[in-house]
Design a protein that fits this description.
This protein has helices at about 20-35, 50-55, 75-85, 100-105, 110-135, 165-175, 185-195, and strands at about 10-15, 40, 65-70, 90-95, 150-155, 180. By secondary structure, it is an alpha/beta fold. The two termini are about 25 Å apart.
Length: about 200
């Protein structure tokens, strides 16, 4: 299932806290500062104004940071479908399901129901990444890749009806070419290596 183009990378991040948010936004803002288009799809509000000052980012570049908020997992796939019609090709698409998984579990959904929703989001993300790859310039005359795009899926493993078994199943199906990470800093390092 994970037959992604050579111009794409996807990473699965499993966390049990919100400690990754400053690192996620710092990584995204650093890429925005370099002129890249970044999309974050999340249910969490995060005040990154201190990072803007720390990284000394020109406010005109913030148009390259697209943050889409959602209230239900079902909305994520629709938001990813909307992105197919955009002319902008993001370098990074981060889909953060961590907080919403807690809410979905609290809503007493079955394990199968949560797994179905998360799988649909994962497939939607991978489909969008494939759509990006089809539109990316392929390589320079000397063989160097001009553009790459990266997908991040952020999950939680401490959710009542969505645990390690479901996460391992997702990894085996959709992220088998990459490692599963529990530290955002490790993923950020990997992304820096390929960019």
């Amino acid at each position: 299932m994970n037959s992604l183009s050579d111009y794409l990378r996807n990473y699965l991040i499993v966390t049990n806290s919100s400690d990754y948010l400053p690192q996620l936004y710092k990584l995204c803002l650093e890429k925005v500062k370099n002129g890249r288009v970044i999309v974050i799809i999340t249910s969490q509000l995060y005040d990154f104004s201190n990072l803007l000052l720390e990284l000394d980012i020109n406010k005109d570049l913030l148009k390259n940071l697209i943050i889409m908020y959602y209230q239900t997992i079902d909305e994520i796939s629709r938001k990813l479908l909307l992105l197919h019609s955009w002319s902008l090709l993001p370098s990074l698409v981060a889909v953060d399901l961590s907080q919403l998984l807690i809410a979905q579990s609290a809503a007493s959904l079955s394990t199968a129901s949560i797994m179905q929703k998360v799988t649909l989001c994962t497939v939607s993300l991978l489909t969008y990444l494939q759509s990006i790859a089809a539109q990316l310039p392929k390589c320079l005359d000397d063989g160097h890749i001009l553009c790459m795009s990266t997908g991040l899926l952020i999950l939680r493993s401490d959710v009542e009806n969505f645990g390690n078994t479901q996460i391992q199943t997702l990894k085996d199906l959709y992220f088998y070419k990459t490692e599963m990470y529990d530290e955002f800093a490790d993923v950020a390092y990997k992304i820096e290596e390929i960019w």
